[in-house]
Each structure stands twice: as structure tokens, then as C-alpha cells.
Amino acid sequence: MEGFLLVAAMSSYLYIIKYELPLVIQAFLGLQEPTGDWYFNGNVLIIIVSIFIILPLALMKHLGYLGYTSGLSLTCMLFFLCAVIYKKSVIACPLNATHVDHAVYANGYNVSEEGCSAKLFTVNTETTYSIPIIAFAFVCHPEVLPIYTELRRATKKRMQNVANVSIFAMFLMYLLTAIFGYLTFYGDVDSEMLHTYNKVDPLDMLVLCVRLAVLVAVTLTVPVVLFPIRRAIQQLVCPGQDFRWWRHILIAVCLLVNVNLLVIFIPNIKDIFGVIGKNRLVSGVDRKYSLEPRTPIVWLEPDPHPYCFHQLITM
Questions:
Q1: Which residues contact 82 (CB under 8 A, 6 or more apart)?
Q2: Where does this chain mainly localize (predicted)?
């Protein structure tokens, strides 16, 4: 069942690319409405991204080789966090003027004075969405075994330290992003926070760069998710057999083709989770709530000769 959850994760990331990348391209081109050109077609874009970015990374022999792309993904999310913190200092509240000053923004996105006070806890219809979102963001245990097998001098204690540091770092990043995003717009922050900044200045170059960085982070997360799925399939179908490139490539291509078909032909991400039988866990998650990649587990000192899975199980 964890394999189905990882397929859902891959689908959610490709959904983000499908719907956000055309909007980012449109904003960079300074267009008010998308044209009929191919680069505004989300289905075409996810196929291109899958072939030229995700597939080559997914064909790496060992998960440790993706350490550099994972570092770049983490850097993109740090850039996201820094931009949110910076915007808190330059966006005034209430935003009740009708002009844009690029030192302090105020372009007609009206917020009352009463809306500029923070509340410690808010309960509304959107509150129920937070639980499945948080749970989904920290679903990283399927990657533990593949990462463990590629740790040099692998031990349970060392793997636990890697997991603790990674999860705590991501928790801190998510927490700071949420706090500063909320303190910028208070109760008027949208469920998709980056789109709230568009109401302040739709052509803000910093926000556009942040949105692009988030898309890069999401794209680079997909190959990391694909690795444990492929490893599980190999262990089930051909356990104990030596590595074969044709099998390694075939499984990756089949997975990407099927996930792309899901994203193209199923219009809503809720339907994806329903099809794989996980809608009971994440029934509230929709594309607009899924901006951030899941928590990555950062591994150290990848070993070119990984251990076998059963070595961990028998310890």
C-alpha cells in the first residue's frame, strides 16, 4: 500500500507542474491571459518535464547520486522561506491604497485594520484540511530503506540521526514559512500562499522567481520518490537477482508513463487518491493546497556498493 501512496505523491507533484508552470510562464511573459501556444498546455509541459528532467534523474543507478539534486531542491525551498520572511518586512497592512511602491506594496488589495491582528488559533471550514496536508508532508518512511542501503557504515543509530535532523529541519522550514506568511496577510492569506502575493503585485519578479524555484524543487523530488517504488517492484518481481539496466530502465519508464496518464486524464487530484484507495487518508488534499514537497530524508556518504534490504531487516 505504501507504493500506492508514493504513486499518489508523484501524481500530486506532476499536478503542481501541470497547473503552475503555465501560470509562471504566463507571468514571466507579462500576459494577462494565456494564448493557445503549446507552452501554455499543462499536459504538454508535464510530458516534456518528465522526459527531459525526471526520467534521466530516475535512471541513476543508486539513490545516492541524487544527493546533489536533493541539495538543489532544499536550496530552492530555503529561497522560498527567505522570500516569505523578506516580504513580511516590505508589505504593509492594511493594504488599502491604489498604487504600487516597490519598497512598500499597496495596490488595492484591501484589508481592514481589524484584519491585521494575529489570532493564536482559528477554527473554520478550512481547518480540517490542515491535518491531512501535514500528515502527507511528512510521509517519508518509504525512502528510509533505500537511503539506509546506501549509507556507508550503515547502522540503525546513524540512520535515526539522519532522519531526526532531516525531519526537524523540514519542520522548522515549514513552520517559519507558515508563520511569516500568516503575519503578512493574516486572515486573508489564500490557501495557496504564493497566489496571495499576486494580489499585491502580479508582476513581482521576486515572487515569480520563488514560484519557479518551488516548481524546480517539486520536479527534483519526483525521481527520489520513484526510487523506493522501483526498488519495491524489483524485490517483489525478481528478488535476489543481479542488477540489470534494461529492467531498471523499463520499470522507471512504465511508472512515469502511468503517472503521466493519471495526471492527464484524471481532472482532479482527489480522484487520484480515490483511484488508489487512499482517499480516506488525504480526502481533503487538493492541488491548490499542495505547494511544498514532502519532507526529504537527506542521506550522507553514499556508498557505491549498497547493502541488501534484508541486512536491515535481520539486524
A1: none
A2: membrane
pLDDT digits 0-9 by tens, 97-117: 434 444 444 444 444 555 678
User: Domain residue spans in the chain?
Assistant: 2-313
> Residue 155, by phi and psi: left (phi above 0), alpha (psi -120 to 50) or beta?
beta
Per-residue pLDDT averaged across 184-194, rounded?
Answer: 82
How do beta strands 105-107 and 98-100 pair?
Answer: antiparallel
Sign of torsion, CA 149 152 156 157? Answer: negative
Residue 133 near residue 289 (C-beta atoms within 8 A): yes
* φ, ψ of residue 151 in degrees (nearest 5): -80, 135
Split at pLDDT 50, 70, 90, the class of 276 is low
Indicate whether 301 pLDDT > 50. no
